Amino acid sequence: MSKEVKIGNVKIGNGNPVAVQSMANVKTSKIGEVADMINELAAAGCDIMRVSVKDEEDARAIPEIRKRISVPLVADIHFNYKYALAALDGGAEKIRINPGNIGGEDKVGEIARALKSNGAAVRVGSNSGSVEKELLARYGKSEISLAESALNNVRILEKYGVDRIVVSAKASSVPLTVRTYRYLKQKTDYPLHVGVTEAGTYDMGIVKSSIGIGALLIDGIGDTLRVSLTAHPKEEVIAAKRILRSVGLDRNFVEVVSCPTCGRTEYDSISLARKVEEMTAGITRPLRIAVMGCVVNGPGEAADCDLGIAGGGGVCAFFRKGVVYKKVPFAEAEKEFLKEIGKLVDTNGRE
Ligand code: SF4
């Protein structure tokens, strides 16, 4: 079990729910736009939001952004330790720094003092581009060099008495990312921030992130995650929620169980499955609804679902826990089935 680290009102590690993170992609000094984006992402399920602090204007924007949002704020800083101090004094609950590029160890010492006096957390780590030459010479580009580089950064902070540390070590290669976090898990009990870095554009990025993050979460590795996509950050949050649901770490949603369709399918179950998913998207109760192509296999294969539909011979059979209770002609099946979902959802509550 990893140590617990508090980031504002969110606790990570020590068995707490895996927190979803994302990052605003608007310049931080545009306070209104950034705060609106953070609030939009928080409503979509983001637990912690990060912003980059690139210059003084960005650093000065932190207190006002902090006031306008309710999720913990992380400031991402490179090179200038003064921005880290300003962000911490401005209310950022966590910073993300690279102790190696912040201007020397004395500067790290100053940041450490500010972290401790503000009760803030810090993420350090490595990525494929930041590994020290000595580690590369010794271990090549591998999980050992990546993870040891992250651990070097941890040791620098520990030297200054910092213990609210979160660690990351990301690569853009999925197998390397997974091996690196497995190695890290053996070596440290600080919470791990997992993700595949530079995962790419929407479609491929989701596949890479799902495999990388999913493999780790199934092994119990990862206390907070970010899906990195070259897309609107809201897509990262939606993908993150779906990953958590797929690996069983979030059960409070309506799972649509639907078959791939085949030559036995006689009605448009593809469009119906989509409609059911849209209709139930905001429901935070653990329910399973099946949309199956045919009556031959449908009810049996979806026997554990709260409600289901399967078609054949001009009618759709509606079933609960695999038992057919109603048959409706194809022409009215969709409308009737959506009505049945409405009833099911009302009896189970909606949030
Ligand atoms: S449930 Fe029926 S229609 Fe769907 S894939 Fe299986 S056999 Fe084909």
Question: Care to describe what's here?
Answer:
The chain has 351 residues and is α/β, with parallel strands linked by helices. The chain has 2 domains: 5-246, Dihydropteroate synthase-like (TIM Barrel); 254-348, Sulfite Reductase Hemoprotein, domain 1, CATH 3.30.413.10. It is 44% helix and 21% strand. The chain contains 12 helices and 15 strands. The chain has helices at residues 31-44, 56-68, 81-89, 105-118, 133-139, 143-159, 174-187, 202-218, 233-246, 269-280, 298-301, 330-348, and strands at residues 5-7, 10-12, 19-23, 48-53, 73-77, 94-96, 121-127, 165-170, 193-194, 224-226, 254-258, 287-294, 307-312, 315-320, 323-329. Helix 2 (56-68) links the parallel strand 4 (48-53) and strand 5 (73-77). Helix 1 (31-44) packs across helix 2 (56-68), helix 2 packs parallel to helix 3 and helix 5 (133-139) runs antiparallel to helix 6. The two termini are 32 Å apart. The mean pLDDT is 95. Iron/sulfur cluster (SF4) binds next to strand 12 and helix 11.
